[in-house]
């Protein structure tokens, strides 16, 4: 007969084999904003203090048990494409779980898709700090579900593309596209890539045929189109077969836009991404004919900012989950968080998270200020670097939980599957790195603006100053195009680290900035997370990342 060592809450004896001990309590509910000191500081520093109540509210809801349950249900009950009704009529509808609608409604009704475009000062001008406030809110809501952030991001990003390339269309659509009403507003998607081209959109074969009323009839296919229930889409197509590049068109969903299948993806499975065929659907020109890439790049730059925000959310989430577990789990006679090897790992994860947070909100401020030279360059660089770090970070955070992290209920497998998306979307690693090389030539004012920002920390740390010197030497080797492409990633990595280090040296506590410079700039750390050098104050970094 089994011995009894404990009782349950009702006083009934419990078989020790069934007793639960040495497990971390549920993390939800958690106030995601009040627990994030780096985010609070960056929100105030970058001009978003006026939106703090909104940011706090969304952090509380996103960290609730209800939001977690909706997120899990939306992932579990994946979208279903209904191409035809029972009679054979084409309907092209996507069946979505009610939890998906709860999540997307929550983002839309809090204005994540349009806040910077709608928020106004008393004189009618755009309110300063709108992009910063929106970035903080967008990042926090991403904790509830990453998939719903895609249509929110594309809708936010289409507004500047229409304003610049088609003012008449902007006048017609902007109010609906920015309306914080899920039932009566509109959402925007995009369809750029094709089977044969991928990132090489100049290889597109979709055609746009002129119509007598000045519009175009779109014929062709797109390998990726997200998200099918959107009301409008930006689509690339060539007007003439031999056009060197496509033109950009606004297409309203309806007959002639036929969805072929939904993608069976690694992550963000709650999000319906599709393949689509266009069969004469009406398109209206955005930008100049034959300059579709220039027209759509305004949208892409803003969605790249959201890629940075999404990866920053993942970095923060993994850090919080790992620290929370380590504080409540014991092994070999001590809490995990107090064991030196684990302390090193946790501090390293926290460094990555804080650096991304500071950088993302600084870049968001550049969108508020219209600092085109800096923001264009910084977005391309940090989109590459922050997003590239997310997958390895998620893996390490999962490993901190061991077997507990490998099971779906922990949420870490979902974080791990979702992490690569931001690095792929809107330009994978090589595309982003080569974009920086092109910007060096075509936008020569970008690099000086970027380096000027970095140099604001000059003299604060000798390791940082030496890093800037090495960047200057590397830039001097870019004359050979082949050599430049071969080392493009290393250059962008160095630049990304320079901005992060500069921000941490200027704004973060000493232990954070010192450990970052030692491990990321001076070569004193290793290649995996958890290889911080001796001498750093790892405990102070962990305690700051998640106040006990």
From TrEMBL:
Domain Acyl-CoA dehydrogenase/oxidase C-terminal: 290-440
Keywords assigned by UniProt, alphabetized: FAD, Flavoprotein, Oxidoreductase
Pfam families, alphabetized: Acyl-CoA_dh_1, Acyl-CoA_dh_M, AidB_N
Residues in Adaptive response protein AidB N-terminal domain copies: 22-183
Cofactor dependency: FAD
UniProt domain Acyl-CoA oxidase/dehydrogenase middle: residue ranges: 189-279
Signal peptide: none
Family the UniProt entry places it in: Belongs to the acyl-CoA dehydrogenase family.
PANTHER family per record: ACYL-COA DEHYDROGENASE, ACYL-COA DEHYDROGENASE AIDB-RELATED
Protein name, as recorded: Acyl-CoA dehydrogenase family protein
Source organism of this protein record: Patulibacter brassicae
Taxonomy of the source species: Bacteria, Bacillati, Actinomycetota, Thermoleophilia, Solirubrobacterales
């Amino acid at each position: 007969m089994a011995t009894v060592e404990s009782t349950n809450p009702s006083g009934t004896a419990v078989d020790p084999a069934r007793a639960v001990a040495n497990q971390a309590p549920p993390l939800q509910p958690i106030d995601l904003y009040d627990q994030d000191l780096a985010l609070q500081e960056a929100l105030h520093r970058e001009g978003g203090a006026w939106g703090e109540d909104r940011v706090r509210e969304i952090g509380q809801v996103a960290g609730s048990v209800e939001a977690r349950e909706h997120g899990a249900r939306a992932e579990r009950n994946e979208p279903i494409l209904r191409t035809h009704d029972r009679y054979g009529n084409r309907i092209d509808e996507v069946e979505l779980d009610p939890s998906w609608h709860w999540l997307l409604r929550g983002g839309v009704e809090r204005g994540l898709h349009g806040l910077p475009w709608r928020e106004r000062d008393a004189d009618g001008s755009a309110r300063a700090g709108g992009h910063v406030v929106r970035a903080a809110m967008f990042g926090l809501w991403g904790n509830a579900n990453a998939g719903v952030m895609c249509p929110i991001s594309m809708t936010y990003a289409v507004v500047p593309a229409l304003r610049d390339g088609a003012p008449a269309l902007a006048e017609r659509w902007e109010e609906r596209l920015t309306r914080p009403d899920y039932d009566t507003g509109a959402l925007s998607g995009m369809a750029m890539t094709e089977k044969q081209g991928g990132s090489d959109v100049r290889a597109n074969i979709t055609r746009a045929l002129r119509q007598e009323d000045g519009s175009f009839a779109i014929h062709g296919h797109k390998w990726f189109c997200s998200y099918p229930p959107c009301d409008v889409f930006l689509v690339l197509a060539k007007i003439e077969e031999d056009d060197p590049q496509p033109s950009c068109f606004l297409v309203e969903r309806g007959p002639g836009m036929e969805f072929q299948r939904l993608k069976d993806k690694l992550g963000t499975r709650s999000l319906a991404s599709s393949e689509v065929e266009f069969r004469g659907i009406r398109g209206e020109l955005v930008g100049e004919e034959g300059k579709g890439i220039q027209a759509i790049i305004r949208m892409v730059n803003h969605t790249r900012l959201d890629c940075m925000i999404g990866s920053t959310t993942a970095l923060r989430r993994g850090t919080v989950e790992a620290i929370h577990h380590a504080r409540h789990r014991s092994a070999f006679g001590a809490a995990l968080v107090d064991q030196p090897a684990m302390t090193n790992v946790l501090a390293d994860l926290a460094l990555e998270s804080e650096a991304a947070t500071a950088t993302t909100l600084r870049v968001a401020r550049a969108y508020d200020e219209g600092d085109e030279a800096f923001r264009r360059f910084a977005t391309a660089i940090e989109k590459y670097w922050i997003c590239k770090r997310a997958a390895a970070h998620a893996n390490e955070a999962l490993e901190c939980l061991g077997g507990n992290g490998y099971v779906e209920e922990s949420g870490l497998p979902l974080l791990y599957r979702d992490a690569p998306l931001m690095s792929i979307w809107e330009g994978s690693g090589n595309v982003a790195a080569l974009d920086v090389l092109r910007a060096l030539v075509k936008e020569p004012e970008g690099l000086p603006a970027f380096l000027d920002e970095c140099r604001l920390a000059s003299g604060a740390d000798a390791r940082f100053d030496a890093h800037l010197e090495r960047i200057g030497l590397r830039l001097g080797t870019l004359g050979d195009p082949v050599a430049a492409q071969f080392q493009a990633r290393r250059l962008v990595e160095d630049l990304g680290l320079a901005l992060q280090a500069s921000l941490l040296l200027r704004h973060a506590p000493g232990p954070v900035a010192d450990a970052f410079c030692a491990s990321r700039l001076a070569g004193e750390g290793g290649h995996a997370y958890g290889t911080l050098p001796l001498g750093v104050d790892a405990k102070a970094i962990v305690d700051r990342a998640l106040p006990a």
